[in-house]
Design goal:
By secondary structure, the chain is an alpha/beta fold. Helices cover 50% and strands 16% of the residues. Strands 1, 2, 3, 4, 5, 6, 7 and 8 form an eight-stranded mixed sheet that branches. Its EC number is 2.1.3.15.
């Protein structure tokens, strides 16, 4: 059973349970048993499309949730010093386990109003230029960079193209590959196309178990290949976009486990794993000389895609 279908059935059962009288304890227990069986069936063998659904789930934790739990004394910085600010990127400085860090996080909203403000996590050129400005500042003070990736892709609007969207992304790819400071990227939900890749040139890339990371969305894949967006579920099976696919191919370095049903069902559990991973890797990366850090980063990306 698909997770979406399971959740609909569970909501129906929960509504029935809420309407039961106090003397209907037998039915109450039956409903709880049915819900447990539904969850067991749905979460035991997830298909790629199930993980796409979980990655896009409306209750899934956003970048701001992870920042508040991982980073102490976070201070947000604004503007690209060229055109303006981009609310789709939260960028700033803080401390992680006592280590001064720079955080660059693609931000979606929790409500429709906030999503409109954040442009649904789709960054404009000024967002990528802001990210690069803060990354170069981090390099100057040798602060490690923690990237949080969550976007369906870079914003494809006319204004974004006119202001140099492609150039801004390309500049991020170029500059991040040569940054003389450690970079760790965490894909928390969607990692779509060049919009995600711009913040994914890193020494370590980690994904949440139910996150996705690909060159485009399943809908885009189906539209291009079959001229039929409705075949997105089928497309997801061919795209190898899940964390397990990408780990197997050596594209990512680690998978953060999630509770059944997604990170929203146990955010503290997920954050604890991320914290342990980042702390462990930073201890190693901070000790490396700049030339070695850049050399190993270069070799990491040279190996990606090798058969």
């Amino acid at each position: 059973m698909k997770i979406k279908e399971c959740e609909i059935k569970i909501r129906t059962l929960e509504a029935e349970k809420a309407g039961l009288n106090i003397d209907e304890s037998q039915r109450y227990d039956e409903i709880n048993k049915e819900i447990m069986e539904l969850k067991k069936e749905a979460y035991s063998n997830l298909e790629p499309w199930d993980r796409v659904y979980l990655a896009r789930h409306q209750d899934r934790p956003k970048a701001s949730d992870y920042i508040s739990l991982l980073i102490d004394d976070f201070y947000e910085l604004h503007g690209d010093r060229c055109y303006g600010d981009d609310n789709a990127l939260i960028g700033g400085i803080g401390t992680f386990k006592g280590i001064p860090v720079t955080v660059l996080a693609q931000a979606k909203g929790k409500t429709l109003e906030e999503n409109l403000k954040r442009n649904f996590g789709m960054m404009n050129p000024e967002g990528y230029r802001k990210a690069l400005r803060l990354a170069k500042e981090a390099e100057k003070f040798h602060r490690p960079i923690i990237n949080i990736v969550d976007t369906a892709g870079a914003y494809p609007g006319k204004g974004a193209e006119e202001r140099g969207q492609a150039e801004a992304i390309a500049k991020c790819l170029y500059e991040f590959s040569n940054l003389k400071t450690p970079v760790i990227s965490v894909v928390i939900s969607e990692g779509g196309s060049g919009g995600a890749l711009a913040l994914s040139v890193a020494d370590r890339i980690v994904m949440l178990e139910n996150a996705i990371y690909s060159v485009l969305s399943p809908e885009g894949f189906a539209s291009i290949l079959w001229k039929d967006e409705s075949r997105a579920e089928e497309a997801s099976k061919y795209m190898r976009l899940t964390s397990y696919d990408l780990y197997e191919k050596g594209i990512i370095d680690h998978i953060i486990k999630e509770p059944a049903g997604g990170a929203q069902n146990g955010l503290e559990y997920v954050v604890a794993q991320i914290a342990v991973y980042i702390e462990t890797e930073l201890k190693e990366l901070i000790q490396k000389k700049d030339r070695l850090l850049i050399r190993e980063r270069f070799l990491k990306y040279r190996k990606i895609g090798m058969i």
